[in-house]
Design brief:
By secondary structure, the protein is α+β, with helices and mostly antiparallel strands. The chain folds into two domains: 13-174, Alpha-Beta Plaits, CATH 3.30.70.1290; 194-254. The chain has twelve helices and four strands, in the order βαββαβαααααααααα. The chain has a four-stranded antiparallel β-sheet with strand order 2-3-1-4, with helices on one face.
């Protein structure tokens, strides 16, 4: 079945979401986050992809980007970014195969009002996820570029010009909003936090990352999956934190 063509923005501006396969964690530590940012910087160079980046937020298992493409298509930009990061990530964690789930998701931005809405929505993602109490506390987003008026990486002028002044822009970023943009499929509320679940996984298996877990032998892996499920970690959460598909986890749990 042919792929459905993406909707193109008349402004050439898109909100993009890139997520880990099986919703697994794709950023294990600060070095992983920084590497992805370095790759964004590398391809922003006009000799490579020449795109404008208006906002980003790197969550543990997905990425939000707000960008404007110019001479290079959005598909080509995302392809280059994904390939470069996956090659680096697989080498670092001694793994092979896909890291990102299917094609990236995207929505076109067609007017300045919606551009502002997406801009705020991306920066409030950590707040909505409950990992910060006020906008700006989370380190892995472009919030700080706007707060510091730093245009050395993020192209802040296009969006800053939508406001009368700096204070109005920052007030807008701090104003809570229930306006939703394109988002990942909801996977429900887990009984325990990801942080607590990862601590359980590390204590019971000595695996420090999804890549470590995926290198386990089949028998040991399935034994661990049963034990972790009995510890109160849901199947969906196990899938996110280990990179093992829900079907494989259910099969392991149901084995006699």
């Amino acid at each position: 079945m042919p792929r459905k063509a993406r909707k193109k923005s008349n402004l050439c501006i898109n909100h993009v979401i890139l997520r880990g396969v099986n919703q697994q964690i794709i950023f294990e530590d600060e070095y992983d986050y920084q590497q992805f940012i370095d790759i964004l910087r590398y391809y922003k160079d006009e000799k490579k992809c020449s795109f404008n980046l208006y906002a980003y937020c790197l969550m543990d298992n997905h990425v939000h980007l707000l960008l404007e493409y110019t001479t290079v298509s959005l598909d080509e930009i995302m392809k280059r970014i994904e390939i470069k990061f996956v090659r680096w990530y697989n080498k670092r964690y001694r793994r092979i195969g896909h890291l990102f789930q299917e094609r990236y998701k995207s929505e076109p931005v067609e007017d300045m009002e919606y551009l502002k809405i997406v801009f705020r929505y991306i920066h409030q993602n950590p707040l909505n996820a409950g990992i910060e109490k006020v906008p700006g506390a989370y380190p892995w987003s472009s919030y700080h570029d706007y707060a510091n008026q730093d245009d050395s990486f993020i192209d802040i002028k296009r969006i800053s010009d939508l406001f009368q002044n700096y204070e109005e822009c920052m007030t807008y970023l701090h104003t809570l909003s229930d306006k939703m943009c394109m988002e990942l499929q909801s996977f429900g509320i887990y009984g325990i936090s990801d942080e607590d679940a990862m601590e359980i996984i590390q204590k019971k298996t000595d695996c420090k990352s999804p890549a470590d877990f995926q290198r386990l032998g089949l028998l040991k892996r399935n034994q661990y999956l049963k034990e972790l499920k009995d510890s109160g970690i849901s199947v969906r959460q196990l899938s996110r934190l280990t990179g093992i598909s829900r079907g494989a986890i259910n099969a392991a749990i149901n084995q006699s």
